[in-house]
Amino acid sequence: MDVAKPDLTTALRDVRLQYENLASKNMSESEEWYKSKFAVLTEAASRHSEALPQAKQDCNDYRRQVQELTCEVDALKGTNESLERQMHEMEENFALESSKYEDSIARLEGDICNMKDEMSHHLREYQDLLNVKMALDIEIATYRKLLEGEESQITTPMQNFYSLNLRETSLDMRSDMDSFSKKAPIKTTETQDGHVINEMTQDHGDLE
């Protein structure tokens, strides 16, 4: 039997035609895609090229603002350091003045205590002098009463014998005064703030 041989040439030509058609189709699609992308990129590039000067201007403005802010920060740092130095100096001066004031207060308190002690001492001396004065006043009043009593006893209706008995009367008056003064008690009163705190009565014999 005769076997029919395949026609390879025709088959290869058909495959080649198919691949050529597919390649041309892909090439056309690629060109269209490339053209569309190129158009988009061209439009974007033109758009960005128009915005580029403004971006450069903005960048320059921002750079200048950064420099200005940096200068302001440096100035503020210098001011802050100066204020901190002044604050430390003021704190040191305040501490020194506070120490001086505390020393002055301590000295004044010591002076006040000394003045209080001196005042108490003077008050005691004044009280002692006042007690002595009161005792002397009482003694003077007692002697005055004694003298008044002696004068009343010396003055008698007997005027004729006055000149004769003058010396004797004087001697008698002196002796009577001594006796009365020895017999009359002395009363001592001690007061404080206008109130009697102590009373003491003594005879001349006890004092001698």
From TrEMBL:
PANTHER family: GLIAL FIBRILLARY ACIDIC PROTEIN, VIMENTIN. It comes from the Eukaryota. Vimentins are class-III intermediate filaments found in various non-epithelial cells, especially mesenchymal cells. Vimentin is attached to the nucleus, endoplasmic reticulum, and mitochondria, either laterally or terminally. The keyword Coiled coil applies. Residues 1-154 form the IF rod domain. Keywords: Coiled coil, Intermediate filament. Residues 185-208 are annotated as: Disordered. Residues 52-100 form a coiled coil. Belongs to the intermediate filament family. This is VIME protein. SUPFAM superfamilies: Intermediate filament protein, coiled coil region (SSF64593).
